[in-house]
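so my prof wants the structure for this chain in the tokens format not the other one, which i didnt know existed until like an hour ago. anyway here's the sequence
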Amino acid sequence: MTENNTQSTFEFCSPCTGRIRLVAHVEHDELQRLFDALEANVVGLPYFLLELDMVDIESTAPEARRLTAERLGRWQRHALAVVTGSFAGRMIAKLVLTANERVNHGRTKSAFFDDLEPARAWLEQCGEDLKTQHS
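here's what i got, hopefully its the right format
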């Protein structure tokens, strides 16, 4: 599924991976739509993997950062790979990861990456680990 009404997009890759690509300035309502799409696809799954592509992000509204922490806190078992391409993106991503870690108290894995390829390889390994833990 791809969100077409904004520049930012969501895609679900079966069986358990969500991909969110954020572009330009991200507002609360835009992020709400993306997280709603993610939640619709992962509800009922024992775990999921999330790739958050922030390479083309410029900024986020404070409400959007709070929403990210709140929504990620709903799901206990997930791995989050944040891909950033700039200092500004890394700073925003650091806020996201810090909020994710505080809300989830170590129940999730998260990491920064400069490129999609290593992020996807890391998520694949996390998926294997989570699958083993769930079995």
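also thought this was worth mentioning. Residues 116-134 form the longest helix (19 residues).
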